[in-house]
Amino acid sequence: MSARQSSGLSNVKKQRGFEIWKGQNLFFCEGRVIGGPQWGNLVKTSVLIAVPTFLFFIFTGRKQMEEGWYWPMFITIFLYLLTQILLIVTGFTDPGIIPRSEKDAQMWRGNCNPPKAQEINVGGRIVQLKWCTTCKIFRPPRSFHCPICDNCVERFDHHCPWIGNCIGLRNYIYFTVFLWSLFFLCMFVLIMSIVQIVRESSDSHQSTNWEKFKFAANHNPISLFLVCFVFVAMWFIIGLCGFHMFLVVTNKTTNEHLRGTYSHGSPFSRGCLGNVCDICFTLPPRTNVHAHHVPPELHENQRYVDKRVVTYMKPEEMQEHVSSMQHNNIVIQQ
Question: What angle (nearest 5°) sits at the alpha carbon of residue 56, between those of residues 214 and 235?
C-alpha cells in the first residue's frame, strides 16, 4: 500500500460522524445541531403560525393599543415567541437516535446471522427486542426504525410531518409543550379578535344587532378573518393536545396506540401520576449521537459508545483480567 493510500485511509477514519452519517438528518454547527430531513415542513409550519399572528399585531393589536389596551399585545408576543422557540427546539433536537453498529452482526455468535428477535421480561410481560437489519442492532423496547429519517429512534412516538423530524425520547416533552403553547396562542388571538369586533359593534349607532355586526366587520375585516381562520384551525390543535394528554396519562406512544401493541395497558405504566411525572418533570437523557466528535481508531473487538471506547473480551481474557484485579487487590491490602 502506498503512502498516499495510507494517508487517504487515515483521513477517512478521522472524519467526523456527521460527515459519514448514513441517515437522512441535517447537521449544523459542524454536527453539534441535528435536525430532521424535512426542514421545509418546519419552515412552512413556522410561517403558518407567523402570518395570522403578525396580522393580529398589525391590525387588531394596534387598534387595541391605540385604545389603551397594551397587555394583549405583550401576552401575544410572549406566546408567539415561546411557540416559535419550542418549534425550533423540537425540530433541531436529537429525538433519541440509536447509533448504528456495523460490526455487531458479525460478532453475534461468530459470523452467524443474529436471530430476528429477543425476548425480555418487562413488568411481568414478555417484550420482544427486534433486530434492525439497517442499523445492525437489537432495538430497545419501544424503539422503531423511522423510514423517513432512516434511523432507529428510542421511545419512538411518530414522525411529525409538520416539524419534519421524529418525535421520540429526547424531544417529546418539547413537542407537547409546543402544542399547548400553540393552543394558548390560538385561544388568545381568537378571544381578543372577538372582543375587538364586539367593542366596535357596541360603539356603533346602528339600530339592529346585524347592522352593528356588519359595521364592526367592515371596520375590522382582519379581526373577522382571524376569528374564522383560528376557529377552524384550533380544532386540529385541540385534538392533538387531547390525544397526547391521553398518551401521557397511559404511558403510551402514538406508534404503540395506532398499532394496538398493548391492548391491555402499557407494561411501562407507573400509574397516572407517575406517568405524568416521567414525561413532564424528568429531564431528557443525554444524546447518544456525537456526530461532531472525531471517532478514534478502533480494533475489531472495540466499539465507540457514548464517547467512550468499549473493549469486548473473550471468556478466557475476562477470567485473566478478573484474576489480575484480585491479585492486585491482595497486594495492595498487604
Answer: 85
Q: Report yes or no: 212 and 206 within 8 Å, Cβ to Cβ.
A: yes
Distance of alpha carbon 202 from alpha carbon 3, whole angstroms = 86
- Residue 82: predicted pLDDT: 97
Whether the Cβ atoms of residue 177 and residue 164 lie closer than 8 Å to each other: no
The number of helices, as runs of H, and strands, as runs of E, in the chain is 11, 12
Three-state secondary structure readout of 71-101: HHHHHHHHHHHHHHHHHHHHHCCCCCEECCC
Grid coordinates belonging to 50: 407567523
Of the candidate ranges 47-51, 84-88, 268-272, the one whose mean pLDDT is the lowest: 268-272
Average pLDDT over residues 18-28: 88
pLDDT at residue 334 tops 50: no
Mean pLDDT, range 223-229, rounded to an integer = 94
Structural contact between residues 250 and 269, judged by C-beta atoms closer than 8 angstroms: yes
pLDDT in tens, 102-141: 665 455 545 456 666 677 776 666 777 888 888 888 888 8
Question: Cell numbers of 116, please?
Answer: 430476528
Distance between CA 87 and CA 45 in Å, rounded? 9
Length of the chain: 334
pLDDT band (50, 70, 90) for residue 326: low
Each domain of the chain, given as residue ranges in start order, spans: 22-97+159-322
Catalytic site includes residue 112: no
Catalytic residue among 132, 152, 160, 186: 160
Q: How far apart are CA 65 and CA 72, in angstroms?
A: 8
Residue in this structure with the C-alpha cell 413488568, named with its chain if needed: 123
Which of 280 and 92 is assigned the larger pLDDT?
92
Grid cell in block for residue 189: 388571538
**Cα–Cα dist 98/145, whole Å:** 9
C-alpha torsion sign, points 74, 75, 81, 85:
positive
Farthest-apart Cα atoms in the chain, separation = 104
Contact 132, 144 (CB under 8 A): no
Between 210 and 323, name the one with better pLDDT.
Answer: 210
